[in-house]
Amino acid sequence: WAKAEGRGRWAVYDPERSAREIARSSLAAKLPTALDRGEFVLRYQPIVSLLEGRMLAVEALVRWQHPELGLLGPDRFIGLAEETGLIVRLGEWVLRRACRDAEQWRRGFPDARLVVSVNLAARQTDDPTIVETVADALASSGLPAELLQLELTESAVMGTAGEPLRALHRLAALGVRLAIDDFGTGYSNLAYLRRLPIHCLKLAGPFVEGIRGDDADAVADRRDERIVDALVRLAHALELWVTAEAVETGVQAERLRALRCDTGQGRLFGAPMPADRIAARLAGAEAA
Ligand code: C2E
Ligand code: MG
Ligand code: MG
Ligand code: MG
Fold it and tell me: Where does the EAL domain lie (predicted)?
């Protein structure tokens, strides 16, 4: 049966699809050497206090400086890296680089207490060596644990057995902050919030996008606003911080502040940028 089904799937020739498949597999083939050649770079996006406008943290976002194709976003290769398992090595590179950059900022601007937030894929949190890897990234960079935040997806938190991962308790015990990324878009139940030492919820972009403040689609708007309102209340009841993702307009920032959301991230506060531009911002804030 499987064979017949498999054949059936490939029987229909779709030139666009096969072009995509070829592009994908050639990217996949080049991923491991790209890491060895140092073709990955990090951008950092400010996470800003909605009350005072101060930059409290930055999220590390990986890019691939591809020799022919130019700067590729993670949507082009993170999925591939997850499928091939390379994400474990790539993720470790991101973590170490981000810790080193954050330690540079801390040395230059100790009063800023800027937190660096690093995405962890499910494959990484499943890896038994993750706790030692994080501990070593902190030790070898010199970055204090409380200036590192790890962003986990809901599915990563739940692991494969439906139990929140033990490793997360050990990670929290190192003193790092744990955040749930894209909160509200996963498939897991909320029981993990009772048991896990989470510090922050990141509200997924689509909820924020729904806040437009104009009269068009007013009903749908209000529904997204009410969801954000409820999620912020939930987070605060559990003494968690809330970061709204994909904040693009002043109206959204205004509404999010009114809903007591703590921090925002998005084009309004700055696109992902190279590490030296974060340093320039810290210098600017100090001068002001
Ligand atoms: P994410 O962790 O939810 O990151 C936020 C995404 O929102 C980023 O996309 C960011 O560039 C984008 N964004 C920033 N401002 C705005 C805005 O105003 N509006 C909208 N609509 N989007 C905005 P990016 O950099 O393309 O990254 C996409 C995803 O790739 C990330 O989503 C994350 O899941 C993954 N990713 C990125 N870097 C890493 C990494 O080092 N490791 C792992 N495992 N995943 C990563
Ligand atoms: Mg993230
Ligand atoms: Mg996110
Ligand atoms: Mg994400």
Answer: 24-286
